[in-house]
From TrEMBL:
UniProt superkingdom: Eukaryota
Protein name per Swiss-Prot or TrEMBL: AH receptor-interacting protein
Task performed by this protein: May play a positive role in AHR-mediated (aromatic hydrocarbon receptor) signaling, possibly by influencing its receptivity for ligand and/or its nuclear targeting.
Subunit structure: Interacts with RET in the pituitary gland; this interaction prevents the formation of the AIP-survivin complex.
Gene that this polypeptide is encoded by: Aip
Organism: Corythaixoides concolor (Grey go-away-bird)
């Protein structure tokens, strides 16, 4: 039993990785024995039971795939700081290629990984410092690409959150206004959408044809919605 007494913590980390979370989520920087005494629950009943009553374990290992030498790409959490910086342009390129192929969900996952690498590095810098700002300027285009994927996946409120966070720092980011405007329009925030599209035109008048198309689409959807509402309410009041 003494050989697997720390396995519950290892298993929790592996489960976090499988769920796309930080493998050390919920753990402080202290020794593993201290972790065992500090946490009353690991969040998984089977691991809690194993933690209370350590016992010999048998592991079944299944080979899922075999990769060619040099083809393996580490997950962001396992990379060193230098490896993260080197990996970001490659992951960004992979995301762009997937997007061009129409694989939007896969592309968004790549952009997310690249953002995670840079965010991890940014957390080690003083907010507002030159290095922090440099990393943030690398994160912004990746985040906008991620938002484009989320627009296509109809996850509009995530787009609103991310674009607003960009605009809180960079008030002249045309792409963030445009994507936020599209997201507002999709969830019927008409006034907010119109305001964002107006800001796009103020910052870049050359985008008038694109903005006009979006506004016409919004107006057409509003007319269609009004017609549907009239029919629906007419049915209610005639009963």
């Amino acid at each position: 039993p003494q050989h697997v007494v720390l396995y519950p913590l290892v298993s929790k980390s592996l489960r976090n990785i499988a769920a796309g979370k930080d493998p050390l989520e919920g753990q402080r920087h202290c020794c593993s024995i201290a972790q065992l005494h500090e946490h009353y629950s690991l969040g998984y009943p089977d691991l809690d039971e194993l933690q209370k009553n350590p016992q010999p374990l048998i592991f079944d290992i299944e080979v899922l795939k075999v990769e060619a030498p040099g083809s393996y790409q580490q997950d962001p959490w396992a990379m060193t700081d230098e490896e993260k910086l080197q990996a970001v342009p490659l992951i960004h390129k992979e995301g762009n290629e997937l997007y061009r192929q129409g694989k939007v969900q896969e592309a968004s996952a790549k952009y997310y990984d690249a953002i995670a690498c840079l965010k991890n590095l940014q957390m080690k810098e003083q907010p507002g410092s030159p290095d922090w700002i440099e990393l943030d300027q690398k994160i912004t285009p990746l985040l906008l690409n991620y938002c484009q994927c989320k627009l296509q996946c109809e996850e509009y409120y995530e787009v609103l959150d991310h674009c607003s966070s960009i605009l809180n720092k960079y008030e002249d980011n045309v792409k963030a206004y445009f994507k936020r405007g599209k997201a507002h329009a999709a969830v019927w925030n008409v006034a907010e959408a119109q305001a964002d599209f107006a800001k796009v035109l103020a910052l870049d008048p050359s985008l008038r044809p694109v903005v006009s198309k979006e506004l016409r689409s919004l107006e057409a959807r509003l007319r269609e919605k009004d017609a549907e509402d009239k029919i629906r309410f007419k049915g209610i009041f005639s009963q």
